């Protein structure tokens, strides 16, 4: 270990400088207004939670949790996501007051520190949870809200990919001979290892019809523009009817170009029971966010009501925001010796008009050019004028 | 249409993969000036190649600065990065195996394994119920058992000649390796059509080559 230098921050931690801070604040404000306008109420939970409850129930891999120990010897985690703490609050308290719940959050979450760059250990997430409504309308609302939020931020090119855990499971089950085979294939899909999927299918030595169907499925099922394309793989079942209903609702709401269906979409957490989706945008190499129906998580907290929601990674969202989102003007009032009162009056007058005004004594500046560079307007107030 | 960036490993794999792309009907110049350039623009196809160390290809692809790339399965297994593995190109095929001096058993208390692939080696021995100590080396792994640094090595084997020449024998076949076409998850969505088209055109060629 090398000695820690005075300027260093812990691995994976970042400072937020004024320019980024404002951008973040803008995103927070825009998002908050949008979500509140859609009936969501904001909520805050503790930064630290128990590992045995939140840590274990969370969708985040165990190795990615930021762990600590409290003074009683309990293992704690810095919250890895907001969905799990919200499930805790909802099941223990809020659901007793009102069903369904529409909750929203904007909060920093944490991941285990990683040595490679580009993987912050702390970042902001914004999202919603709709708890206590198991209907297709709730899922449609969540997808529409995610898309609406991306539009509200004027993200130029984004895409939502929607899948269904139940449909995938029924396809895997019906074209394999054992549950173990189906599970092996599901794990390969979680890893997005299409090559491994094909190899495994061939290695199972299934009847030709099953093998052919699975190979064709893996070739085309990750990019369906319409639901009808999946029908040849599944016998009519509730999940398929559900997705059809969902597609109709989304189409009627005007969301068609931005969505695609991917029935190979699988999550490593088996608490995703129904519809699940991912959000992508040009400009970030990583997904912006994801969501889905997670009734299974509520089960682990002892409730059987449905729950659905999504979360966006604000740090990645910032990468894809168009430039005009961040503009702001600022005025500098520089005063010379003896002109303080006059300058103050001037500054306050400008502030009353809603401008951002910095008041600064000229004599204190060592490098005037560098100081004034960040302002859109500079007013110098001297004694004479 | 935005440019498709392809990360390629330098050297022999580049040439083989380049040949595959030409066979798949991509309009690429037959002679490539392979001097010291790290980036090659192909305006005719709206493609840009970036040339990287084989170990680094998944890094470029995972971070999304390259949309797709060609990487060895060994590197993918070792690094475990979040990329889509789309197609087995079936070029530069070899395998990963453990090897050591003939007729030796591993140290019972603390068996030592020298390797370039600490992840793969750890996972393999864990899988067969052995707890081992890993010594990471960067090359000439065969030296380790010869001079007593390790009981076994875990390394890439293509013909087995290097092992033989150094008096080592192969013990366990761990996994097969070949070059894979990988994609960034976001590019896979936003440039999905171009990427699926590429896979569709490459697939028959790859399979045909192997059957011959």
UniProtKB/TrEMBL annotation, chain A:
One of its GO terms (biological process) is histidyl-tRNA aminoacylation. CDD domains: HisRS-like_core. Residues 12-321 form the Aminoacyl-transfer RNA synthetases class-II family profile domain. HAMAP family: HisZ. This function is generally fulfilled by the C-terminal part of HisG, which is missing in some bacteria such as this one. It is found in: Cytoplasm. GO terms for molecular function: catalytic activity, acting on a protein; glycosyltransferase activity; histidine-tRNA ligase activity. Required for the first step of histidine biosynthesis. May allow the feedback regulation of ATP phosphoribosyltransferase activity by histidine. Coiled coil: none annotated. PANTHER family: HISTIDINE--TRNA LIGASE, MITOCHONDRIAL-RELATED, HISTIDYL-TRNA SYNTHETASE. SUPFAM superfamilies: Class II aaRS and biotin synthetases. This is ATP phosphoribosyltransferase regulatory subunit. GO terms for cellular component: cytoplasm. Heteromultimer composed of HisG and HisZ subunits. Its main location: cytoplasm. The gene is hisZ. Signal peptide: none annotated. Pathway: Amino-acid biosynthesis; L-histidine biosynthesis; L-histidine from 5-phospho-alpha-D-ribose 1-diphosphate: step 1/9. Keywords: Amino-acid biosynthesis, Cytoplasm, Glycosyltransferase, Histidine biosynthesis, Transferase.
Automatic annotation (TrEMBL), chain B:
It catalyses: 1-(5-phospho-beta-D-ribosyl)-ATP + diphosphate = 5-phospho-alpha-D-ribose 1-diphosphate + ATP. Pathway: Amino-acid biosynthesis; L-histidine biosynthesis; L-histidine from 5-phospho-alpha-D-ribose 1-diphosphate: step 1/9. Keywords: Amino-acid biosynthesis, ATP-binding, Cytoplasm, Glycosyltransferase, Histidine biosynthesis, Nucleotide-binding, Transferase. It comes from the Bacteria. GO terms for cellular component: cytoplasm. Residues 53-203 form the ATP phosphoribosyltransferase catalytic domain. The keyword Nuclease does not apply. One of its GO terms (molecular function) is ATP phosphoribosyltransferase activity. Signal peptide: none annotated. The keyword Transport does not apply. GO terms for biological process: L-histidine biosynthetic process. It is an enzyme of class 2 (transferase). Heteromultimer composed of HisG and HisZ subunits. NCBIfam families: hisG (TIGR00070). Lacks the C-terminal regulatory region which is replaced by HisZ. PANTHER family: ATP PHOSPHORIBOSYLTRANSFERASE, ATP PHOSPHORIBOSYLTRANSFERASE ATP-PRTASE. Belongs to the ATP phosphoribosyltransferase family. Short subfamily. This is ATP phosphoribosyltransferase. It comes from Caryophanon latum.
């Amino acid at each position: 270990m090398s000695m820690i230098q005075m300027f260093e921050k812990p691995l994976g931690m970042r400072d937020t400088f004024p320019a980024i801070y404002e951008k973040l604040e803008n995103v927070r404000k825009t998002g908050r207004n949008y979500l509140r306008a859609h009936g969501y109420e904001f909520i805050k939970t503790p930064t630290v939670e128990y590992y045995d409850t939140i840590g274990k129930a969370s969708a985040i891999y165990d190795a990615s949790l930021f762990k600590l120990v409290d003074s009683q010897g309990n293992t704690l985690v810095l919250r890895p996501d907001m969905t799990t703490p919200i499930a805790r609050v909802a099941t223990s308290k809020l659901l007793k007051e009102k069903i369904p719940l529409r909750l929203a959050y904007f909060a920093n979450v944490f991941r285990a520190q990683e040595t490679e760059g580009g993987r912050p250990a702390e970042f902001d997430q914004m999202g919603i949870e709709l708890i206590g409504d198991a209907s297709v309308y709730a899922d449609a609302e969540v997808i529409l809200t995610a898309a609406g939020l991306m539009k509200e931020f004027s993200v130029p090119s984004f895409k939502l990919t929607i899948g269904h855990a139940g449909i995938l499971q029924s396809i895997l089950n019906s074209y394999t001979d054992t549950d173990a085979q189906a599970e092996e294939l599901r794990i390969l899909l979680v890893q997005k290892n299409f090559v491994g999927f094909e190899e495994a299918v061939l290695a199972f030595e299934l009847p030709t019809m099953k093998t052919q169907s699975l190979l064709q499925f893996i070739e085309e099922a990750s990019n369906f523009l319409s639901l009808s394309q999946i029908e040849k793989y599944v016998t009519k079942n509730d999940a398929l009817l559900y997705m059809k209903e969902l597609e109709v609702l989304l189409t009627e709401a005007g969301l068609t170009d931005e969505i695609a269906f991917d029935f190979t979409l699988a999550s490593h957490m088996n608490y995703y029971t129904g519809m699940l989706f991912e959000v992508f945008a040009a400009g970030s190499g990583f997904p912006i966010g994801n969501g889905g129906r997670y009734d299974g998580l509520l089960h682990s907290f002892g409730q059987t009501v449905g729950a659905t929601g999504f979360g966006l990674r604000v740090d990645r969202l910032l990468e894809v925001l168009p430039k005009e989102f961040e503009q702001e003007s600022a005025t500098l009032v520089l005063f010379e010796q003896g002109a303080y009162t006059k300058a103050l009056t001037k500054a306050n007058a400008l502030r009353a008009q809603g401008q951002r005004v910095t008041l600064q004594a000229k004599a204190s500046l060592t490098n005037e050019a560098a100081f004034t560079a960040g302002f859109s307007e500079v007013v110098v107030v001297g004694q004479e004028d | 249409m935005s440019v498709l960036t392809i990360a390629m490993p330098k050297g022999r794999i580049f040439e083989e993969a380049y040949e595959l792309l030409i066979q798949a009907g991509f309009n690429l110049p037959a002679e490539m000036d392979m001097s010291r350039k790290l980036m090659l623009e192909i305006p005719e196809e709206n493609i840009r190649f970036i040339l990287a160390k084989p170990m680094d290809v998944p890094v470029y692809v995972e971070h999304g600065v390259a949309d797709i790339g060609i990487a060895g399965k060994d590197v993918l297994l070792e690094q475990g990065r979040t990329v889509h593995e789309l197609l087995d190109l079936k070029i530069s095929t070899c395998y990963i195996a453990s090897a050591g001096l003939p007729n030796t058993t591993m140290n019972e208390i603390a068996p030592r394994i020298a390797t370039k692939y600490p992840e793969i080696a750890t996972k393999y021995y864990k899988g067969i119920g052995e707890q081992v100590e890993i010594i990471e080396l960067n090359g000439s792994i065969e030296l380790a058992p010869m001079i007593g640094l390790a009981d076994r090595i875990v390394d890439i084997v293509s013909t087995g000649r290097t092992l033989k020449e150094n008096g080592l024998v192969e013990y366990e076949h761990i996994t097969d390796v070949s070059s894979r076409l990988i994609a960034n998850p976001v590019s896979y969505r936003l440039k999905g059509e171009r990427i699926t088209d590429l896979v569709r055109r490459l697939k028959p060629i790859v399979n045909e080559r192997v059957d011959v």
